[in-house]
């Protein structure tokens, strides 16, 4: 089959399309003929050499696909056998940039009703990330206020809609007026232009001086001080990305005084059982919200499989909102 590998570390030019052996599913696994691939920040971080795949995982990049189950591993249980021929999405630790993938059947969900098969490729990684962190880690409750950094990216556009469905109040950061308008359409109560407004003072203004209960952060070190100052008492800072660096100083006195918590998590390196539990939760709690229209699909642009370099160049530009996909 055809698949992409990174020929060294660098820009999108290091993506090489090559021939590799077809994966063979083991017991409890399914083989998926890929229809769509979702691009994620992790793909870029792996490409530049700072986020290698976990030990034992293929070097083929990509964390999520949609497609049709073509085969089932020998010795699989009956419920796994029943997946053959079904349209599904799958959460991966790697291997998505390929014509076929083999994956633990517990990390697979049916395509939500009414969703196009290729569009579905951009769902499972963001849904699992948002649900496992906002509900699983931060325990966001209705009527709490949550600040989402990067509200018009793949994670952000999903998180804003999910928070609205939960009955929470969402604030977000954006880079321009056009993105602010989109964020507010997706459920943000207010969009803060990080290029023009001071984050801490604007958050205090919007919350009557109290601060926010939860911050969902993909930036990391660059925003750490401002994030801690923007949290309300008993606030939780959930860090899932390091776009703004990995090292910064924290004011422990401020954290003690306000009883703050910093939670840092990744999804990719979790064990198979933990991922299975997350995927199960997504199927039970998130899929109904998609099927009833409370969360809409935010596909920004679809590239052909042969255009993976162009797709990553576009992703790197920061111009996109929502998800960028590859179509096979």
TrEMBL record:
Using the record's annotation, list all stretches that form the Enoyl reductase (ER) domain.
Answer: 10-326
Q: Which UniProt keywords apply?
A: NADP, Oxidoreductase
**Database matches in Pfam families:** ADH_N, ADH_zinc_N
Instruction: Output this protein's name.
Output: NAD(P)H-quinone oxidoreductase
Q: Known PANTHER family for this protein? A: OS02G0805600 PROTEIN, QUINONE OXIDOREDUCTASE PIG3-RELATED
